[in-house]
Amino acid sequence: NAFGEAEAKTTLNIACIKPVINADLNAALQATKGEAMTLKISVSGTPKPDIVWMRDNNKLTSNDHIQVIPPTDDDEIYTLTILNIQPEDQGEYSAAISNIGESLKSKKCKVTVSKSPEFIVKPTAQKVKQGETALFKAQIDGCPPPKISWLLNGKDLIAKEGIQVQFNTATGEANLSICNVNLQHVGLIICRLENPHGYQEETIQFTVLAAPTITTELPKQQETASGRDVTLKVVVLGSPPPSAQWFFQGRFIGTDNASINEARGEYQLLIKQTTVAQSEGTYRVVLKNEVGEVQSTPCLLTVLEPVKLTRVKPTSNVIDLEEGNAFDITID
């Protein structure tokens, strides 16, 4: 006042500031199965608020699977991390926030877990003997569990007599078994995985091992005119395609004039400019693969020489006959 001044000092301690959410949880979060999922919320208040993380109505505490990280002294970020997240971790996550001044709750964040299909263990190519059972194995992952399709040469294989399809969603094991396999099963096997988040497939070779069998034999007998070419042919089934050895009169005759059409299973031998001396006789073919062998029926090839006529009588080219006399001609 007009005669002087005075002042007094005191210390004001703020004992409590109610919690305030500065950055809330998102409404939804898509997590990838097997990876880490992290939720963060920013909260201020004095004293620093306590947070309890919730999934649905269950409290979450730190363990090998869940990490709850409080803020540092100069930070306001509270963090929840789910390690190796799995489908059972899906749900509505929230945070219950409190200090001595007030309690409040965060928004709910709906967490869904997904994963595009993938092969953990891929099926492998198979070689199986005819009549045995083929088993194809795979281990897969995906969320939701993918639809599994098995195809043979582009056509769906469905469970029926002789074909079994199995899928264990708990272990991810997928199996295809084909009983009593035959040559109709040879080709490409496709294992296809599909779910709403992706698609994957694996293609492998399926080989059925079968000993050669002759479906069209050599003729037992065949005739040809001297000087002409002759082709001997057999039709054979076998896997892998068999090799052929041709024999004439019991002797191996090489492969220079032999040919194979694997698509049709045709094995041919070309005999050029046949003669009685060099070509007439018995032919056969032996077919072999790693499973077995088979021998054709023998084929007897007969070479016909052209007819030669020789006049025996009369010896003269000109004959004078009287009217009424007989005339004779003799041919050998």
Notable features of this structure?
332 residues, mainly beta, Immunoglobulin-like, 3 domains, 8-stranded mixed beta sheet, 1% helix, rod-shaped
Note down, in words, how this protein is organized:
The chain folds into three domains: 98 residues, Immunoglobulins (Immunoglobulin-like), CATH 2.60.40; 88 residues, Immunoglobulin-like (Sandwich), CATH 2.60.40.10; 88 residues, Immunoglobulins (Immunoglobulin-like, Sandwich), CATH 2.60.40.10. It has one helix and 29 strands. The N and C termini lie far apart (171 Å). The chain is rod-shaped and about 195 Å long. By secondary structure, it is mostly beta strands.
Low-confidence stretches: none
The arrangement of helices and strands along the chain is EEEEEEEEEEEEEEEEEEEEEEEEHEEEEE
Strand content: over 45%
User: What percentage of residues falls in helices of 4 or more residues?
Assistant: under 10%
How many separate structural domains?
A: 3
CATH class of the largest domain, named Mainly Beta
- Assembly category: single chain
Largest sheet: 9 strands, mixed
Task: State the shape.
Answer: rod-shaped
Q: Count the E strands.
A: 29
CATH superfamily of the largest domain: Immunoglobulins
The chain-level structural class is: mainly beta
The radius of gyration over CA amounts to 46 Å
Question: What is the terminal separation in angstroms?
Answer: 171 Å
